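Section handout 9: paired folding examples.
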Amino acid sequence: MPSDPFKDLTTSRKKGATVFLEGDLGSEMYIVQSGAVRIFRELNGVKQELAVMEKGDFFGELSVLEGLPRTTSAEVIQDADLLEINTTTFDKMIRANIEIAVRMLRKLSTRLQEANRKLEAVSRGGPAGKRSKADVEAVDIDRPADASPDAPPSIGVATPPKPLSEIEVPPGVLGLLILDGGSRQFPILTEAAVIGRYDPVTGTRPEIDLTQVDIHRSVSRRHARILAEGGTFRLAEEVGALNGTSINGQRLTPGQPKPIVNGDRLGLGMVSLVFKAGEVRASEKGAPARSSTSRRG
């Protein structure tokens, strides 16, 4: 079997090239191997950008799954290599890349929940005959979702490099993940904090967002999760994460949390972070886990 089973399916597109237009019929989806693609809709001659797809992102999957016309347009904004997947090679792609499969399930789940919320809102607004055209068109599960406006800042705080011993965990913060060299600090604010990168496919942003520091894009969109309980911490790799997760060089098994303590070095893909725990109030020691620690994602 060749090292790259999809080599013959890769197509190169120059900046400015159109991948497809809204309303087009098609039977292919695309995975960005390099470069960038803009997803947009055009209203009154003005392009409204919905998302920018980069390495590892996919788009156009509804044409493969359902044979539906395109609901958005796509154009190359940075010379790109795209993996073109049709219905024949779709099964092979899913089997070869579990992260794509998991993200696709998450995207469709998010779209279904959003569609249900909008349908409920429409049904509360009055009889079906009084629903507006805008209400009906709002149910569109192929549009990238917006990041939650309530999500706390998660891109980390840039700081002058300093020794780990001189870095203090701010009051009220459970702990810190410190970029190798101390140049950026990521606060742990919740008992179940996902570590990863912003995902334009699903529109979700993890509690600890490594997008700006992962220049090689080696960290999966949902890569790992830190669980905090009564002053103790554990790290677990998320299902579908690629490129590995480690604690002091020891590779983790996906879905199996392992304890972490002050000074532990965490490896996520090619990003190296040092963990530092905050002070635990006496009332929190031995306290039972709150519901957020058992949430599934």
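Moving on to protein 2 of 2.
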Amino acid sequence: MNEQKIALVTGGNKGIGFEICRQLGQQGITILLGARDEERGQEAVNQLIKEGIKTQYINVDMDDAETFHQAERFIAHQFGHLDILINNAGGIFETSHHSDVISLSEIRKTFDLNFFSQIRLTKTLLPLIEKSTAGRIVNQSSILGSLTVNANSNSGLLPEFKLLGYNASKAALNMFTILLADQLKEKNIKVNSAHPGWVNTQLGGEKAPLTAEEGAKTAVELALLPDDGPTGGFFHLGQSLPW
């Protein structure tokens, strides 16, 4: 493994993001752990360094586009390229799963984090990814963003997971995956969406059956795809999912 392979993981200080950093780092990849809170980010970095993983904290605040440009300048100066971008940061802000009740402000806040900021960061860093010999972009999506699953009354989707803002933002992120992959298909850059599964994290809740370690596996697999691997797809642990 090339010791200078560089990966940026947003929301890397906890949960699935932290485990993605750990698993990629165990493959000898240099990790840029993106987080908005420097203290918490540095604590996570120090833990990974103790495990022998080459890691640096990098300020990436999904609400502040200036941190995207600062990150781009830092990576360009330090490394000259970026091999892997994991758009992992995301959240839920809805206080109701009733589409006729949810406020537009909550939906906008959800889209700002889960969709618009992902596009903005990716566009900012894309010139550096294009300098990689094998660029990989992984958008952390969710099966909740599947139109097929949401439209199927027999899918087993619980009522509390029928969230207009969150589900629609992940569906939009999946569209970004499809179109960006198509636009980059002539380059050695692969773009895919990952469904981590229902994971026991602050976002997923205590009832979720999967650990953060298990939830990180799909994004890591997509980040390490070989040259003949897929692009423009939606996956969970190697299995294609319906859009």
